[in-house]
């Protein structure tokens, strides 16, 4: 993603979270699972989806980071939960999503992590 495009995305996030503009879409009560949500664009994406009314599930290899983002969202009186997910391991992904699917029906999956090739 270009630096200019990223600044545009950050502006959308900032305006949305501050309530400065009309949000382009609503996702009320839709469950959104976001991998790589513990930092960077994944974190920003989680905050945008939450602001749009989604019930956000933050997934990250660093559970502490995922929980921090979920807590920020919950502090805004929005719904979020954190899950540890190492996307480099198929077994770990299967375990994480098995746990997630026992609790929720996931409507949207966003993959934002960097994965080794």
Largest sheet strand order: 3-2-1-4
Distance between the termini: 18 Å
User: Count the strands?
Assistant: 4
According to CATH, what is the class? Answer: Alpha Beta
Q: Structural class, judged by helices and strands?
A: alpha/beta
Globally, the shape reads globular
* Total separate domains: 1
Order of helices and strands: HEHEHEHE
Helix content bin: 40-55%
**How much of the sequence is in beta strands?**
15-25%
List unreliable stretches of 5+ residues. Answer: none
Give the full name of the CATH homologous superfamily: NAD(P)-binding Rossmann-like Domain
Brief summary:
With 117 residues, the protein is an alpha/beta fold.
Write structural notes for this entry:
The protein is an alpha/beta fold and about 120 residues long. The chain has a single domain (about 5-15, about 25-110), classed as 3-Layer(aba) Sandwich (Rossmann fold). Helices cover about 45% and strands about 15% of the residues. The chain is built from four helices and four strands. A four-stranded parallel β-sheet has the order 3-2-1-4, with helices on one face. Helix 1 (about 5-20) runs parallel beside helix 2 (about 40-50) and helix 2 (about 40-50) packs parallel to helix 3 (about 65-75). The longest helix has 16 residues, at about 5-20. It is globular. The model has no long low-confidence stretch (mean pLDDT about 85).
Keywords:
alpha/beta, 46% helix, 4 helices, 117 residues, Rossmann fold, 17% strand, four-stranded parallel β-sheet
